[in-house]
User: What shape does this take?
Amino acid sequence: MKTIALFGGSFDPLHDGHRAIINALNNFMYIDKTIVIPTFLNPFKSVSHASAEQRFNALHVEFENVKNVEVSDYEILQKTKVSSIKSVKHFLKTYEKIYLVIGADNLATLHKWQDYKKLKKLVTFIVVTRDNIQIPEEYITLHVEQNISSTQIRNRTKPCKTE
Assistant: This one.
């Protein structure tokens, strides 16, 4: 295996949209494997609702028997926020080509990502459709028909009291 798709995120919580993306990636003939990478903490956020270990375990259980899908604990083991470029460089030690999967909602702030210009030279971006956002032709578009986000799910649920 030489070519991978890296699909990182908080997965807080995992939902049908994430599942649909992974299923769609499995249909890309030029991708040998999808590596799902839950963040320890998203670089643009200050808190996660579920712990890193809980999110990793949920992903692992969900995808352990899915062909050509691996869940990596690389970012969680760093115990800090990890930039995409750092993860990409880590996986380039093992794989020759990386497709980096992002949601269309990230396009507006992509230029703010750490070392974006270097990152753009190291990967080919696959941009997942979302909220009718126009995706420039320079990116590979991945059409997914799930209109849901982790934020929407969290906003619809009541927090549990732990006392």
About this structure: The helical segments are 16-25, 52-63, 74-77, 84-92, 116-122, 150-156.
